[in-house]
Write a structure and sequence with these properties.
InterPro entries: Arf-Rho-GAP_ANK-PH_domain, ARFGAP/RecO, ArfGAP_dom, ArfGAP_dom_sf, PH-like_dom_sf, PH_domain, RA_dom, Rho_GTPase_activation_prot. The protein is an alpha+beta fold and about 1100 residues long. The chain has 32 helices and 43 strands. Helix 12 packs antiparallel against helix 13 and helix 21 packs across helix 24.
Length: about 1100
């Protein structure tokens, strides 16, 4: 906000250049917070801003010039005249003095100069298109600040800031996102996918804050009852029903909207600023949740009440009963007597008794009833004459309110609790008879009959012709469960679509006009899709409908969600989510069917979604459609199944196999495999690479290598693309190596994302292969001869293609900007492979051993220990191995243990001393590692267990569930729950007095980790993260918080006690140390070899230990 008094004008800015000052004309603005300069008067974003609070003084230095002196830097300006200069100096000095006297601390000044970093929501380096170097970006409140570097941020001197009230954030690719304003698009790029997600989330929060105004909310919350949702009790509700005068939470507000404006008028406390007049705010002080609920919730049975954790369906049922039906209201004594109710209302509005007016109005009194007074014909006029402002406000907001009415008829649950939009459409359609089976054969044109069809009042009717008054048949839109848009010419009619209904019937319609068919599709979809899923209607969907799914904490109860399939993306609107979430089907880690074609399992990033087939007919269609969409759809790179890093799964599978089994194979990639095996393998990988597992013994190295080469040779549009391929070849003519590398880097940036990621993965692989050239005889030149013609799809007569590949391998580090950490990791893996090959060839390596990196006390390079892990090694043996290497003597009360640390979850778990290490390595993610350190709380836990009475533990803890997949599950903060832990199970109760547990989990299926990630803002620092997996491999995750450290220690000790039969610590450690076999130390410092395979294979491998530990490597 610019003040009128501070001068806003233009000046010439003095910039140092080649030892002297060159003056550049800049438009300069001064407001209460910043002195900013711009390229021009109309530019919305500055070139530089100087915080007013950092200015220490302003001095005149002659010749129309003046100097602005800050704490760390000076800025010289030259005005157009001495008069203008003096005016600038006077205004600057005045505002600086005012600033100092009032000690104002605003925005980035308070964030940087004063060191108050708690106001910063997100900060760090980002690439911004148009700048050579990364900028330091800060998201703080409702603004985003850009700085040249972290030092400028510390000083408070930045480039510009972006007001987020006009901003919009959109994800562009794996690491890129755009911040769009009406004046400019800021294209940012983060260092990783996870970093990008965090930045996007922070900026979206900033936009929300910019659009909100907390002043009204704070005033409404001054009344204690308004600090909690009137319906479910959630804290700090920021929505309200302005006619019912209740303050409600966001989730209840969504269900209120579904009741319609005749029942409840929903407005935001923070965003709908114009609504909140002084009278309305005062009305909420007088009525609010306390008075309103004395009427609306006077008779709520405890069994029907809802809580902050209630589902959308439970909220919907409760709110319909509460407000639409008035089921729980306190009936007025005059209820049923219309004349007396109206007379009483006329009397009440002349007083300050708002509760009486509310009770009368919602028990049947007419808001516009006749008063009998010609001068004041309505209750509103009576209230105005009596000077009752709040009565007038209440009546105005309820002029169109409907009186609650109990539903008459059956109580059968309907699929919709809210009215669907009324859609009208009509015209001729071609139709076949309804079917009870999927359409498996092409329908000829002669099988379709031309019918006049109408969509009106929630019914799709079809008639013999447009003159008939009686329909041949009808379809109620509320019974439609799925709508399918078939590909053109699927049947004898050009454009066809299918309608599935609840009674397992399928209707096939068609039209010769694609545009007309599309209009019908949109109209039918709009008529049956729930309003909360209306986002899906904007998609060019192939299939849309409702299905049941499992997810979140409650895996026993299936929920209803809305799904739309568009291309290779499945868009989902979950029951407890307000926005649709896209699921990239080609990037799934697993896609499988469980049971008798009853459950479709989709696994993405270790998260699982279970889609259930309630109705067989439409579910089978969904299964086939999703399976097809999740597969490869063409011969270009972007049409392949992909990894999370955008590399085709086919390429990733082949590279992984050759890395593990073929790096030392002589003539790798030069020798050809068997043509028939190559053809068969390539066909399998193209069809579904996700289901193919390459295993040594079953597949030959040369066959796999030949498959990879053939894939690239047959690739549509090529790896380098037809558009840019010749430019890559021309770059080889550049004689200057640096110029050539620079050109390669430029061309790399022009490639599509998938091509760029694939090229880097391939060259990285070839870089490794040539490191083994002494064994495989394939140096950089030999690899280039093979891969040049393959990648450029040429005949090989011209070596330019080979030269490009040779240059890419030789300058891999520079061209692909590989940092030292990546290089070290690759070199360690190469060293490890060489060592293992040597050990294998000498016959000294035992089958079943793996090499693993373990840290001592903390994760840092100097603390690394590389250990060979036999199949039988326990956590205790691994701990002693690490301590022996560092010659650390374990004293009497030193409780050294091996911990599994999960960096992503910011949690750790001490392994039980008898736990086998190798199965844990199989399950470790990329963000997890093992560390050996002292378990500081073990002595206290042992004392507690020795002194307690009984084996149970019970008490209150704060509970929160983790989101499961794409927003599944609850995310409403921590809530008090009562827990009982015994020797077999953990039970959760809503409160201490509850007799029946809400949940119950077998203890043997729980994994308990100490710590909770800070992003969740736990109420205390004493908490743990719990993972649960049942026999069907369905997973859940939640968090528990204790009030004290002692309480946390006692709960954790009890968990360990019941899970390990009471044995927390070995009674005699010396025997283990003495009996432990000596490890082979000849391998030295060797880094972790990646353990391959999907989750199912890992589980199978772990299970194999129980019977034969040597099973693991027999197929490797």
């Amino acid at each position: 906000r610019e003040q009128h008094r501070p001068r806003v004008g233009c000046s010439t800015l003095c910039l140092p250049h080649m030892g002297s000052y060159i003056y550049q004309r800049r438009w300069v603005k001064l407001d209460a917070d910043y002195l900013r300069y711009f390229d021009g008067e109309k530019d919305p974003y500055s070139k530089r801003f100087i915080p007013v609070s950092s200015i220490s003084r302003i001095t005149s230095i002659g010749d129309q010039k003046f100097e602005v002196i800050t704490n760390n830097r000076n800025f010289v300006f030259r005005a157009e005249s001495d008069v203008d200069r003096n005016e600038w100096i006077r205004t600057l000095q005045q505002i600086v003095e005012e600033r100092k006297s009032k000690a104002l601390e605003r925005t980035s000044i308070s964030l940087t100069i004063n060191g108050a970093t708690d106001l910063v929501d997100k900060s760090g380096f980002l690439e911004l298109r148009g700048f050579k170097h990364k900028l330091f970006v800060v998201v703080a409140g409702d603004k985003v600040f850009l700085y040249k570097n972290a030092e400028d941020y510390r000083l408070g001197i930045g480039i510009t800031y972006i007001e987020m009230n006009l901003g919009n954030v959109k994800e562009v690719d794996r690491r890129g996102f755009d911040l769009t304003t009406p004046y400019r698009i800021f294209s940012f790029s983060a260092d990783s996918d996870q970093e990008k997600e965090e930045w996007v989330e922070a900026m979206q929060q900033s936009i929300s804050e910019a659009l909100s105004n907390s002043e009204v909310a704070e005033r409404i919350w001054l009344v204690e009852s308004n600090r909690f949702c009137a319906d479910c009790g959630s804290p700090k509700p920021d929505w309200a029903s302005i006619n019912l005068c209740v303050v409600i939470c966001k989730r209840c507000a969504g269900e209120h909207r579904g009741l319609g404006p005749g029942i409840t008028k929903v407005r935001s406390l923070k965003m709908d600023r114009k609504v909140w007049t002084e009278e309305l705010i005062e009305l909420f002080h007088q009525i609010g949740n306390a008075v309103a609920n004395q009427f609306w919730a006077a008779n709520v049975p405890p069994s029907e009440a809802i809580t902050p954790t209630s589902s959308s369906q439970e909220r919907r049922h409760f709110l319909i009963a509460k407000y639409r039906e008035g089921k729980y209201r306190r009936y007025h004594p005059l209820f049923g007597n219309q004349e007396e109710l109206n007379r009483a209302l006329c009397a009440a509005v002349t007083t300050s008794d708002l509760a009486e007016t509310q009770a009368l109005l919602f028990c049947g009194a007419a808001v516009n009833c006749a008063t009998g007074d010609p001068q004041c014909p309505t209750p509103l006029a009576l209230a105005e004459k009596s000077g009752q402002r709040l009565q007038m406000e209440f009546l105005l907001h309820n002029k169109t309110s409907e009186m609650p009415r109990l539903e008459v008829g059956g109580s059968e649950e309907k699929p919709y609790s809210v009215p669907l939009p009324s859609v009208t459409h009509n015209g001729f359609l071609y139709k076949t008879p309804s079917m009870a089976k999927p359409v498996s054969e092409r329908k000829g044109q002669e099988e379709f009959s031309r019918r006049w069809c109408t969509l009106q009042d929630g019914i799709l009717s079809y008639y013999e012709n447009d003159r008939n008054a009686v329909p041949n048949g009808e379809i109620k839109v509320e019974e439609i469960v799925c709508l399918v848009n078939n590909s053109p010419h699927t049947h004898g009619i050009e454009s066809t679509f299918e309608v599935y209904i609840e009674t397992e019937r399928l209707y096939l319609f068609g039209l010769e006009s694609p545009d007309s068919a599309r209009e019908w599709l949109k109209s039918i979809a709009k008529s049956f899709v729930h309003p909360r899923a209306e986002e899906l209607l904007a998609l060019d969907f192939e299939r849309i409908g409702r299905l049941h799914y499992k997810g979140g904490l409650n895996l026993e109860r299936a929920k209803e969600g809305w799904f739309a399939l568009a291309g290779s993306v499945l868009h989902v609107c979950f029951e407890d989510s307000e926005r649709q979430e896209p699921l990239q089907l080609r990037k799934l880690q697993e896609l499988s069917i469980q049971g008798d074609n009853e459950v479709l399992v989709l696994v993405e990033r270790r998260r699982t979604l279970y889609i259930q087939g309630e109705r067989k007919l439409d579910f089978l269609g969904w299964v086939h459609a999703i399976q097809k969409a999740a597969g490869s759809s063409g011969d270009t790179l972007s049409e392949q199944q992909l990894t999370e890093s955008d590399v085709p799964l086919l390429v990733d599978r082949c590279i992984d196999y050759i890395t593990q089994c073929g790096l030392t194979s002589e003539g790798i990639y030069r020798k050809s495999g068997q043509n028939s095996k190559t053809t068969s393998l390539l066909e399998m990988l193209r069809r579904d690479a996700r289901s193919v597992r390459l295993k040594e013994g079953e597949h030959q190295v040369d066959d796999v290598a030949n498959t990879l080469k053939r894939f690239f040779r047959d690739l549509g549009d090529g790896l380098f693309t037809r558009q840019w391929g010749q430019d890559w070849l021309r770059a080889t003519a550049l004689e200057d190596e640096e110029a050539k590398i620079s050109e390669y880097r430029r061309l790399l940036g022009t490639l599509p994302t998938v091509n760029r990621a694939t090229l880097k993965a391939l060259i990285n692989h070839l870089f490794r292969v040539q490191r083994f050239s002494a064994e495989n005889q394939m140096n950089t030149h030999n690899l280039a001869i093979v891969f040049g013609p393959t990648l450029f799809q040429t005949d090989g007569k011209d070596y330019k293609a080979g030269r490009v590949v040779e240059d890419l391998i030789s300058h891999y580090v520079k061209i692909f900007n590989v940092n030292d950490q990546e290089m070290k990791k690759q070199q360690d893996e190469i060293m490890a492979i060489m060592k293992m090959r040597e050990a294998a060839s000498s016959g000294t390596q035992q089958a079943g051993d793996f090499i693993c990196t373990v840290y001592l006390e903390e994760k840092k390079t100097e603390a690394e220990q590389h250990v060979k892990i036999p199949a039988t090694m326990t956590a205790e043996e691994l701990t002693f191995e690490i301590l022996d290497r560092r010659k650390i003597v374990m004293k009497e009360k030193d409780y050294w243990s091996c911990f599994e640390v999960n960096e992503r979850e910011e949690a750790e778990r001490p392994l039980h001393y008898s736990e086998k290490v190798l199965p844990i390595l199989h399950c470790l993610g990329t963000e997890s590692y093992l560390v050996v350190k002292k378990q500081m709380s073990m002595e206290n836990m042992l004392i507690y267990l020795a002194s307690r009475v009984g084996d149970c533990k019970h008490g209150m803890m704060k509970f929160r569930e983790e989101r499961n997949l794409l927003g599944l599950g609850l995310s409403t903060g921590f809530h008090d729950r009562y827990f009982i832990l015994n020797s077999t199970c953990l039970r959760l109760y809503k409160e201490v007095r509850s007799h029946k547990p809400e949940k119950e989990w077998p203890v043997r299926n729980l994994k308990v980790y100490l710590g909770i990630k800070k992003k969740l803002r736990p109420p205390t620092c004493w908490g743990f993260t719990v993972f649960y997996e049942n026999e069907k491999h369905e997973k859940q995750q939640w968090y528990l918080c204790c009030d004290t450290q002692a309480d946390l220690r006692e709960w954790f000790a009890t968990f360990l006690h019941v899970q390990n039969g009471g044995a927390l610590w070995p009674s005699e450690t010396s025997k283990v140390r003495a009996s432990r076999s000596q490890q082979d130390s000849r391998l030295g410092n060797i880094s972790l070899i990646p353990l391959r395979g999907n989750e199912s294979e890992m589980r199978s491998s772990v299970a194999a230990f129980a019977t034969d530990p040597l099973t693991l490597l027999r197929n490797v």
